[in-house]
Design brief:
- Helices cover 80% and strands 0% of the residues.
- The chain is mainly alpha-helical.
- Helix 1 runs antiparallel to helix 2 (38-60) and helix 2 (38-60) packs antiparallel against helix 3 (68-98).
Length: 102
C-alpha cells in the first residue's frame, strides 16, 4: 500500500465515494423530475466507477506486474464509460427534444 501517499489515497477514495454519490443523486433526480432518461446517466457512470476501483485496487496491492491485467481492465472500462456517458447524454437530449414542453 506504500505506492501512494496518504493525501493521494484520500483523493482516490474520496473520488470513488463522490462518484457513487453522484450516481445516486442523478438516479433520485430522475425520480423527482419524472424524466427517467436521467437514469441512463446513472447507468452510464458505472463503467467509469469500475475503472476507478481498478486503479485503487492496483495501487492497494503496490502496483504488481501480476495485476497488470487490472490496468488493462481500467483502460477498457474508461473507454466503455466514455461511450456510455456519451450515449446517456444523447438519450437525455433526445428526451427533451421529444417532450411537449421543449
Amino acid at each position: 500500500m506504500q505506492a501512494l501517499s496518504i493525501p493521494t489515497w484520500v483523493i482516490h477514495i474520496s473520488s470513488v465515494v463522490e462518484w457513487i454519490a453522484a450516481i445516486w443523486l442523478i438516479w433520485r433526480y430522475a425520480e423527482v423530475s419524472q424524466n427517467l432518461a436521467w437514469r441512463s446517466l446513472s447507468w452510464g457512470m458505472l463503467p467509469a466507477l469500475v475503472s476507478a476501483m481498478c486503479a485503487c485496487t492496483w495501487h492497494f496491492f503496490n502496483n504488481p506486474t501480476s495485476l497488470e491485467w487490472v490496468v488493462t481492465l481500467q483502460a477498457a472500462m474508461t473507454f466503455v464509460g466514455n461511450v456510455t456517458l456519451m450515449i446517456a447524454g444523447w438519450w437525455i437530449w433526445r428526451s427533451f427534444q421529444s417532450s411537449p414542453n421543449s
